[in-house]
Write a structure and sequence with these properties.
Layout lengths: L24 H24 L4 E4 L4 E4 L2 E12 L4 E4 L13 H13 L8 E3 L6 H10 L6 E7 L2 E7 L12 H14 L4 H11 L4 E4 L2 E5 L3 E9 L2 E9 L1
Antiparallel strand pairs: 1-2, 2-3, 3-4, 3-7, 4-5, 6-7, 8-9, 9-10, 10-11
Helix pairs in contact: 1-3, 1-4, 1-5
Amino acid sequence: MGIFKIGKKKSFSVDRELSVDRSSWRDVLSESLGYMMAVQLAFGEIAVRDRDWDVDFSRGVIAFGEDEYPIQFIGSQSDVSNTWLWAWENINGFDSSLLELAEKTKQRGNEWGLEPLTKAQSELDDLLSGHTIASVACAISEEKLCYYRCPYSGGAAFVAVRGVDETVFSGADIAAFAEITMKCISEFDLDHRIFAESFLLRNRTSYEWDANVLIAHFDRDLYIEFENKKGVLRVASIKTK
């Protein structure tokens, strides 16, 4: 089975309040990353498909083979200075219509007091990279967006992509959810509880807690056991029964 859930979804309210400190980059990234990893994998399989790409900022589009999609310019990563520069700084003089997402992301950052979204140029580290910034920018938008890394000599431009097939956003199945979760928590210093619950909510997968075990109801149940390590909840195991 692929990563996509095609067909009728279970009825499930996503109106749950998670304890997320939106002035914390770690918390906001934890909330965004699982969902965006699933979206990006689907985007690669459905839209990109290992085809040659070409981006045209003057027209505001990116092409994969013969297929074109409208874009927003998020920002750029320099491999020389190891820094990120937001598109709203607009040193390239792009048309303002390409910068709407970046501007809205900055506004949200100002509301939350979240510096990585409001500082024009930032030094990059394990949690702050072009990929993680683009993931957050797309995840917190009010649109269904993917992103694409457009490499050039000395760095890469990151663009948000609009208008892709709805299947890209259909959600991860149980195997993909488990795989993405283990990959993300092993590669990034995330809040595991926020990550798991937010991923399930965005995936529209119902779940419940039984003591320190989160039980996610896919086509069969997935059991995510947490352990308390020095006051911090971390995933100890993921399994089905």
